[in-house]
Structure formats: C-alpha cells, structure tokens
Amino acid sequence: MKKLIINSDGAARGNPGPAGIGVTIKDEKGAIVREIAEYLGETTNNQAEYRALIAGLKAAVEMGAEEIRAFADSELIVKQIKGLYKVKNEGLRPLFEEVKGLLRKFKSCNITYVPREMNKEADKLANKAIDEA
Fold first, then answer.
1. How confident is the model at residue 1 (pLDDT cuts 50, 70, 90)?
2. Tens digit of pLDDT for each residue in 17-42?
3. Are strands 32-43 and 17-26 parallel, antiparallel or unpaired?
4. Which of 37, 46, 78, 102 would suit a FRET pair with 94, their CA atoms being 20 to 30 Å apart?
C-alpha cells in the first residue's frame, strides 16, 4: 500500500486578492517526492486553501497513493471536510464537493489541522507562486 503525506496551503494577499497554492507531498519516511507552487489569480483565501488541497489530492491519485494523511492550516476547511462545520459559502461548495469526491479514491485518508508554523514548506511555496506571478 502506497502511503503519502500531503501538506497544503493557500494564500491570498487581500481577500480576495492575488492568490497562490503550495503543496508538498512526502513518502512515509518524510522525504519530499513532489512540490506544487501555482498562481491562481484573484481569489479568496478560503478558495485558495481548498484549491491547494485539491491539487495535492489529485497529485496523490496520479502517484497511485492508496492511503493519505493530509495537513492544512485552515481550521475552517478541515472542519468542513470532517463535517463539523457546514459549508455556508456557495463559492466554496463546489470545491468542498470536489475534495469529498477525491477522498473517496483512497482506501484510507485522514485530514488534520496544523498551525501555520507546522506548515511552513507549503506556505513558502504558496507565497513563492504569488511572488513569481
């Protein structure tokens, strides 16, 4: 069984504003096997957070992962995915549904909230994407 660890982060300067995503994907031993830094254009911070997670999940599917552990520093996104918060913003609903669909592709998945300090690599990639746009 192939296990991967995903750290994702979305950043927007202004809300909405110029936005980017950053994702690191690591193997079981903690070695980075893929990095994603992508400029999104103008969007909100929550949309960027969802799009970062979606990019990480899609990459994990492409890489043949069967089990994933995902970490994000957006408490809102993590609690919505876990069903603890309702998705009230209609702009987030299609992104939420896409995440739920992607999660069904794995035999096992766990999404955890982490403080920003524990998500520095993904944060750095998200900001790099905005800086280089």
1. low
2. 999 999 999 999 999 999 999 999 99
3. antiparallel
4. 37
Q: Which domains does the chain have, with CATH numbers?
A: 3-131 (3.30.420.10)
Within 13 Å, how many C-alpha atoms sit on residue 66's CB side? Answer: 3
Cα 109 from chain centre:
13
Residues forming a β-bridge with 71: 7, 112
Please report, as a single letter, which amino acid is at residue 88. Answer: K
60: how many CB neighbours lie within 10 A of its CB? 27
CA angle 18, 23, 85 (to 5 degrees): 80
DSSP 8-state class, residue 91: T
Query: Strand runs (DSSP E) across 13-120, as ranges?
Result: 17-26, 32-43, 67-72, 108-113
Q: Is 0.90 topped by the overall pTM?
A: yes
Mind listing the pLDDT tens digit for each residue in 102-129? 999 999 999 999 999 999 999 999 999 9
Question: 10 Å Cβ neighbour count for 37?
Answer: 21
